[in-house]
Amino acid sequence: MEKVAVVTGTSSGIGFETALALAREGYYTYATMRDITKGDKLKELASKENLKIDVLELDVDNENSAKTAIKHIFDQKQRIDVLVNNAGWVLWGCVEDVSVNEFKTQFETNFFSIIRLIQEVGPTMRNQGSGTIVNISSVVGRIGFPASPAYISSKFALEGLSESLRFEFAPFGVDVVIIEPGVIKTDFMKNMKIAKKSELDSVYRDITTKVISGVKMMAEMGTPPKEVANTIVKAVKDEKPLPRYIVGNDASMFLEAKKSKTDIEFEN
Ligand SMILES: NC(=O)c1ccc[n+]([C@@H]2O[C@H](COP(=O)([O-])OP(=O)(O)OC[C@H]3O[C@@H](n4cnc5c(N)ncnc54)[C@H](OP(=O)(O)O)[C@@H]3O)[C@@H](O)[C@H]2O)c1
Questions:
Q1: What is the rounded distance in angstroms from the CA atom of residue 5 to the CA atom of residue 162?
Q2: Which residue of 32, 107, 139, 252 sits 20 to 30 Å from the alpha carbon of 159, by its own alpha carbon?
Q3: What are the pocket residues of ligand 1 if the criterion is a CB atom closer than 6 Å to any ligand atom?
Q4: In sequence order, which ranges of the chain are alpha helices (DSSP H)?
Q5: Residues taking part in catalysis
Q6: What pLDDT, on a 0 to 100 scale, did the predictor assign at position 31?
């Protein structure tokens, strides 16, 4: 039986590599993106390697777009085996500089959209008695630092959602997996946004600027997105998928330190 995978945010980075990696493993892969004119490279590689990749429009922020895409996939294939919730972006700015509306915009893509997609594919996976939901969190889904509280709290929220959902879906044979990458070399920092007030006369301007330039430098030397894609493939093929998969030495180091130290030791 042909297995079907759906990946969000496949126009670049981790999503792009994950769509290719799943298709190379034999999955019929719906590579979804909000602007399908960005799908040419994926289509070209798919035709060169004879991969079953279908580029499909899906703006995760838009409820109609999500419903239409998932219905289209179900009408075509009558099953969905893997959903990779990858689409995401980062908003920089300290808490006092980020308006509640800006927080909501960040949460719309990085958190609420994922609930929406899980609710769309849930009935299909439960009826099949199988399926894997892969949620792309981050090392900052478990570790906070200054200047990006909106992004960090959206990933902390995703971790909580995923832990709860693992219990809820387990009796139906559906797995939930969290992926925690460190800094990955993608378009992430090109696609970032900065809270309006941070760019004005903010007391937090220096710290925000320093953190952004530090992360930009780290991203230049970041782990290749292929490593995240390979971990996702491993997770969906594991007979008993683990709750979490960490990707990158930086992420392993930070998360190990967090586990082995008290909160105060870790902060210091
Ligand atoms: N790079 C890192 O260091 C890192 C580390 C940990 C976790 N992550 C997570 O990994 C995921 C992928 O990021 P990336 O590093 O691969 O960055 P990226 O190259 O910027 O890719 C982000 C993808 O998300 C898409 N996207 C954004 N908003 C969307 C929407 N409303 N609907 C559909 N697609 C949307 C983008 O599409 P457009 O081209 O249309 O903008 C793009 O395809 C994110 O969830 C991110 O938080 C990244």
A1: 19
A2: 32
A3: 8-9, 11-15, 33-35, 38, 59-61, 86-89, 109, 136, 138, 181, 183-184, 186-188, 191, 219, 222, 225
A4: 13-24, 40-49, 63-77, 100-107, 113-128, 149-169, 205-220, 225-237, 249-260, 263-267
A5: 151
A6: 99
Give the global pTM: 0.99
Look up residue 138 and give its amino acid.
S
31 Cβ neighbours under 8 A, 6+ residues apart? 7, 10, 15, 16, 19, 39, 42, 53, 54, 55, 56
Q: Which atom of ligand 1 is nearest to the CA of 184?
A: 3
Mind listing the pLDDT tens digit for each residue in 139-162? 999 999 999 999 999 999 999 999
What is d(CA 204, CA 242) in angstroms, rounded to the nearest whole number? 39
What's the pLDDT at 201? 86
Which residue owns the Cα nearest ligand 1 atom 17? 188
10/19 Cα distance (integer angstroms)? 7
Distance 9 CA to ligand 1 centre (A): 6
